[in-house]
Write a structure and sequence with these properties.
globular, single chain, mainly alpha, about 450 residues
């Protein structure tokens, strides 16, 4: 008895020590993240960051937001010109904050990043729990030789903290916050959609996807994996694209999403009494008329484009962001959360006006799939290309604009490297995920019927 009591007490003491360490880690991460943001926001660096095209696009720029607020103060609709492209509800939010006290705006941006990090931590907890439950249901179909590949509770315990730490302490999110970029609001809406979806809350998930789609057109495609995940939660093993109940569940989710979106559009009509904002927000993103250099692929290509070819190639470029949704939905029909993560990365690459803050959310979600990292083949190349892009972008911009010793080709080469690095990361992550799934089913060294190892040749 005494020995068992001693063992129980020692286990409880270990739990308390572990809890204290986690609490200290949280305080350290929040201290670093909030402190770095506060220092940058209160220095002259903030003004410089606000004008950096890597952090601020024509849609998310704080400089354009202040111009919109100034026009609103003078009783002029910001949508009568072609400078302001943020949504009316976001504009009214900052207008109210500015009227109460302008000092609330930096606090608001820091709070948005902190809430997003907390949501990502909760997403990590729920996704890891979902992965373990799914593994438990399917373990009988796995190869006996694949037991070392199975996930464990201890292996996934640190994943939520890594997600929170990456988002809070990433230089990309810190710089975006210090630049007062509204990309943080976009990331908050997407993180809320991920959390509500993984909890199976249809109304909350569709509200969050509607808010994300309202702010930027591209998250409309999130409704497909979200609807699939909720249908799987409701139908269980009977989920299938051909099953009428599954289809009805997905249609209900899609219908609720578009109902929320219509409600947000209706609210946006009230401040100005017109729908002029629709063209200068959603239409602006889709037509990409502003060819100011940014970290995307559109600006240089359409600067060189003959006008009579513009519509055709605009459709081709915009289709890149949505074309992969259906093939991925078919291939990853049993893994909608992984599908949703890939779509976050695809949008960060192919949207018309991307910033570094868009990629920061995708990077913060990577620890969930850490068990696939050992199958990735291009990690070193991706890291090098990322560092090359982020470091050389401001350098080549300065050489082009201020010194005149470079030209647009130099800067566009950096944006191409940035996009290529993200594409390599996406394809490598997909390859690693599918290879691990194959090894779980067939073993780490699958063999043919004659006992010979299977050789795969890519032609």
């Amino acid at each position: 008895m005494a020995a068992s009591r001693t063992t129980m007490m020692s286990e409880e003491e270990q739990e308390r020590i572990r809890a204290r360490k986690i609490h200290k880690a949280f305080k350290f991460l929040f201290g670093i993240g909030i402190g770095a943001r506060a220092v940058l926001m209160s220095s002259y660096v903030s003004g410089w960051l606000q004008n950096r095209l890597e952090l601020a696009s024509p849609v998310t720029s704080w400089t354009r937001m202040t111009e919109g607020l100034s026009l609103l103060d003078h009783g002029i609709s910001p949508y009568e010109g072609d400078m302001f492209h943020e949504t009316p509800l976001v504009l009214m939010l900052f207008y109210c904050l500015n009227k109460v006290w302008s000092g609330l705006i930096p606090v608001f941006f820091v709070l948005v990043d902190c809430v997003t990090a907390v949501l990502l931590h909760s997403v990590g907890n729920h996704v890891c729990r979902h992965l373990l439950q799914k593994q438990g249901r399917q373990v009988k179909s796995y190869s006996p030789q694949s037991l070392p590949l199975l996930l464990t509770q201890s292996e996934l315990a640190s994943v939520p903290r890594h997600m929170l730490g990456i988002y809070l302490c990433s230089p990309l999110t810190i710089a975006s916050c210090a630049a007062f970029s509204t990309t943080g609001l976009h990331n908050l809406a997407i993180a809320a959609a991920l959390l509500a979806a993984v909890k199976g809350r249809r109304h909350l998930a569709t509200l969050a996807t509607a808010v994300a789609s309202y702010q930027c057109v591209y998250p409309e495609i999130f409704i497909i994996p979200v609807a699939m995940y909720i249908a799987q939660q409701e139908q269980g093993c009977s989920f299938s694209f051909s099953d009428p109940a599954s289809r009805l569940s997905m249609l209900r989710t899609a219908g609720t999403h578009f109902a929320w979106l219509a409600f947000l559009w209706g609210l946006s009509y009230l401040p100005f009494g017109s729908m002029d904002w629709f063209y200068w927000t959603r239409g602006f993103v889709m037509l990409a008329p502003d060819l100011t250099p940014n970290m995307g692929l559109f600006w240089y290509f359409f600067t060189e484009m003959f006008e009579h070819f513009r519509i055709f190639f605009l459709c081709v470029f915009q289709l890149n962001a949505v074309f992969y949704v259906i093939p991925l939905a078919v291939k990853l029909r049993d893994h909608p959360m992984f599908h949703l993560h890939l779509l976050v990365g695809l949008i960060a690459v192919f949207k018309s006006y991307p910033t570094l803050g868009d990629a920061a959310l995708f990077l913060a979600l990577l620890p969930v799939w850490g068990h696939c990292f050992k199958y990735m083949r291009n990690s070193f190349l991706v890291v090098c290309m990322w560092l090359y892009s982020i470091i050389l972008a401001p350098v080549l911009w300065h050489l082009w604009i201020y010194f005149g010793s470079a030209n647009a080709n130099f800067f566009y080469a950096v944006t191409l490297a940035y996009a290529t690095a993200q594409i390599f990361l996406l394809t490598d992550l997909l390859y690693a995920f599918l290879r691990r799934e194959f090894h779980l089913r067939h073993g780490p060294a699958p063999k043919e019927g004659q006992g010979m190892p299977i050789l795969m040749n890519l032609k």
